Amino acid sequence: MKRKCQVCGQENGSCNRYYFSPANIITICPACLAFSCDDKAKIARQAHKAGRLVKEEVSKKRW
Ligand SMILES: [Zn+2]
Fold first, then answer.
1. Four-residue CA torsion sign, 55, 24, 27, 41
2. Which of these, 29, 33, 37, 50, has the minimum number of CB atoms within 10 Å of its CB?
3. What does the pLDDT read at residue 57?
4. How far is the CA of 62 from the centre of ligand 1 (A)?
């Protein structure tokens, strides 16, 4: 399933999702995660470092 990157707006099958708060998830493609200077990318990078990657089986559970 393709997801739309919230930073560049492109649909990418390898987009990752990260929690940046319990109620908010950001979808971002690997290129934006690595290289974008967008504020959302910075947040996603922090979430990435904190290990807050959304796993599909986890996302179905409640926080
Ligand atoms: Zn992107």
1. negative
2. 37
3. 55
4. 27
Reply yes or no on whether the pLDDT at 53 is more than 60.
yes
The rounded Å distance from CA 50 to ligand 1 centre is 20
16, 31, 43 from 19: Cα distances, Å: 10, 18, 9
User: Does residue 21 register a pLDDT over 90?
Assistant: no
**Alpha-carbon separation of residue 6 from 3, 11, 43, 55, 61 (angstroms):** 9, 9, 12, 18, 23
How many whole angstroms separate alpha carbon 34 and alpha carbon 44? 10
**What is the Å distance from ligand 1's center to 60 Cα?**
24
| Degrees, nearest 5: CA angle 3-7-4 | 10
